[in-house]
Specification:
This protein is α+β, with helices and mostly antiparallel strands. The chain has three helices and eight strands. Strand 5 and strand 6 form a beta hairpin. The radius of gyration is 15 Å and the shape is globular.
Length: 131
């Protein structure tokens, strides 16, 4: 039986905390804005997501870093020596904490400076900015 290490649980709560600290947004409206920017019948090219998502991400200008993504790992600032595996599947960032526990974040916006993502558990949109 896999038992979560306290650090991994802490990392999950930190991730949930920074999402809940952001102002409320309308998920449907943001998704609609994203959908409107894509012409009908145009396929989205996710091949550059891996290059765009790697880097250091923070909640706002006053925070140096919240976490960073490098190769196939997520590094929490508080637990740098204990990276967690992640992988991208189309527009979804999958963070694997154990064999039986994966958190899925749908990427709403990703460019060279910003990363907006949502998940089914939290109603807010996590808005992160590259450092």
């Amino acid at each position: 039986m896999n038992i979560f290490r306290i650090e991994h649980i802490f990392f999950l709560f930190v991730a949930i905390f920074f999402v809940n600290c952001n102002p409320k947004t309308n998920k449907k409206a943001e998704r609609r804005l994203t959908d409107q920017s894509i012409e009908k019948n145009q396929k989205i090219d996710y091949s550059n997501y891996k290059d765009l998502i790697e880097g250091i991400w923070a909640e706002n200008d006053s925070v140096n870093a919240t976490f960073w993504l490098k190769n196939d790992s997520v590094y929490n600032v508080e637990h740098q020596d204990e990276p967690v595996h992640y992988y991208l599947l189309n527009d979804t960032l999958n963070i694997v904490y154990s064999e039986s526990f994966t958190v899925k974040w749908v990427i709403v916006r990703l460019d060279k400076d910003s990363l907006y993502m949502t998940n089914d558990v939290i109603e807010d949109t996590a808005k992160l900015y590259r450092r």
